[in-house]
Design a protein that fits this description.
By secondary structure, the chain is an alpha+beta fold. 19% of the residues lie in helices and 34% in strands. The strands form two sheets. The chain has a six-stranded antiparallel sheet. A three-stranded antiparallel sheet has the order 4-6-7.
Length: 128
């Protein structure tokens, strides 16, 4: 269920590393907990964030959730498709439903993330 090439945060975001760029999204677990996504607010291109900063919000029929970046860096691309089609987050959270691409500042930030197996265990144990 959780792609092995991704890393995962305790806040239910996933990260896929592509050289010095990371693709960031929310996990299958997170989208399931949110329910039907109706609106996504993403950051501006070029914005810089520190680890743990809020970078956007996801609004569903049940709740509004903040998205936090597990890595420090600069936004180099946002997923424009989510603006017109926010339900992509429900349909394909680990693929077409990605949120942003960032040029990350430090590989040290990766040390706090879990691999797919660790994340799956984390979710099974309550994920809190």
């Amino acid at each position: 269920m959780y792609p092995s090439e991704n890393l995962y945060s305790r806040e239910h975001e996933w990260v896929r590393i592509e050289d010095d760029i990371c693709v960031l999204g929310i996990t299958e677990f997170a989208q399931h907990e949110l329910g039907e996504v109706v609106f996504v607010e993403l950051p501006e291109m070029g914005q810089a964030f520190d680890t743990g900063d809020e970078i956007g919000t996801i609004e569903s029929v049940k709740a509004v959730a903040e998205v936090y970046t597990p890595l420090a860096g600069e936004i180099v691309e946002i997923n424009e498709a989510l603006v017109d089609d926010p339900e992509l987050l429900n349909e394909d959270p680990h693929g077409d439903g990605w949120l942003v691409k960032m040029r990350f500042s430090s590989a040290d930030d990766l040390k706090s993330l879990m691999n797919a197996e660790q994340y799956e265990e984390y979710v099974k144990s309550g994920g809190e």
